[in-house]
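Data availability (excerpt). The following record was deposited with the supplementary files.
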Amino acid sequence: MAGLTANPVQPLDPAEASVGADGWFPDIPLAMVRNAVRLGNGEVTTDRLISAIEAAMLTAFRQLADWRTAHVLAGAGGLAEVTEEMLGNRTQAEVLWDRLIISLTAADLFAGSRDITATDRGLDRAADKEDGADEYYRRAWAAVADLKSFAPGGTRADVPRNRVELI
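Predicted structure:
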């Protein structure tokens, strides 16, 4: 009698693996990004995912540099101190930080996944991936605007969410 033997699925990343931010912004667990975005069945290696998250963090640091400085000068020792408004067991600022990094990471991975040997059908799929990358960038810029709406001193700023680039 023939039987089936199931091998347990090995995790793609080391347990509790994360990319460290800078101490003020929270670290980003790799599992959180993998669970939030469909990254394929192992197509995105741990090293590639870490590289994309690091690139996302660098972009986020640039986008939020002045905003962060204002909060540090107002006494915030970390992102969790920017607002007392909660969502679940985390501050809304922490939730938005995760959304920003996840979105920028996904956009980077989608934009960089075009196969250089692609056929016409493959190129059509690449166009779909570019549309997906654009959607993730839109989500990221909305998260930046929402974060910037938390002004120092517990006040709210009116930050527009639309970004238009004239070409």
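Summary of structural features: The first helix runs from residue 30 to 36.
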